[in-house]
């Protein structure tokens, strides 16, 4: 990610959050950016680098505590994808001499549209699932995706621990 990923939309939302939400949001954004993220987010938000770094450490401690207790820790991710016969790094086994022909570049003009796969991954169990949305409301879809994950994959854990 580049510094331009700290856009006005994110900053507008950021300024509507409570103090604890701001710290958490800044920590997550800095991790999304990667190298130099803490400094970039600090500069954009006015939060100190120490505050952002501390929230990153606190988040990691909570994740490790939950994993030690056998509680679920999930990661939810999404990415817009073009639909079509595009080159991917995955593997598809085909009979010798019968390859699938694909485009060598992912041009939107050559796509059949786009889709938004949404994945929920249980870090502790190293498993999860992906589903694909039709709606453009990704926040609603994220909530539904997490709800489906809870109902299907962690019902027993939730009955036992009641924490998530």
Walk me through what this model shows.
The protein is α+β, with helices and mostly antiparallel strands and 164 residues long. The protein has helices at 8-14, 19-33, 37-45, 49-68, 138-153, 155-161, and strands at residues 74-78, 81-83, 113-122, 127-133. Strands 1, 2, 3 and 4 form a four-stranded antiparallel β-sheet that branches. α2 runs antiparallel to α3 (37-45) and α2 (19-33) packs across α4.
The count of strands amounts to: 4
The secondary structure category is: alpha+beta
Number of H/I helices? 6
**If you average the pLDDT, what whole number results?**
77
Break the fold down into its secondary structure elements and pairings.
Layout: H1 8-14, H2 19-33, H3 37-45, H4 49-68, E1 74-78, E2 81-83, E3 113-122, E4 127-133, H5 138-153, H6 155-161
Antiparallel strand pairs: 1-3, 2-3, 3-4
Helix pairs in contact: 2-3, 2-4
Task: Summarize this entry quickly.
This protein has six helices and four strands. The protein is α+β, with helices and mostly antiparallel strands and about 160 residues long.
Features:
164 residues, alpha+beta, 6 helices, 4 strands, 45% helix
């Amino acid at each position: 990610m580049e510094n331009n990923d700290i856009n006005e939309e994110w900053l507008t939302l950021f300024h509507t959050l409570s103090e604890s939400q701001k710290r958490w949001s800044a920590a997550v954004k800095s991790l999304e950016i990667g190298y130099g993220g803490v400094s970039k987010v600090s500069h954009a938000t006015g939060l100190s680098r120490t505050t952002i770094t501390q929230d990153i450490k606190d988040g990691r401690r909570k994740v490790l505590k939950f994993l030690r207790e056998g509680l679920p820790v999930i990661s939810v991710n999404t990415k817009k994808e073009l639909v079509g016969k595009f080159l991917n790094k995955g593997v598809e086994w085909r009979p010798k001499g019968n390859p699938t022909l694909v485009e060598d570049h992912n041009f939107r003009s050559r796509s059949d549209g786009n889709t938004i796969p949404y994945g929920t991954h249980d870090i502790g169990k190293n498993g999860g699932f992906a589903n694909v949305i039709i709606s453009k409301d990704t926040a609603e879809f994220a909530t539904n995706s997490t709800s489906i994950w809870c109902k299907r994959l962690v019902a027993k854990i939730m009955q036992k621990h009641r924490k998530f």
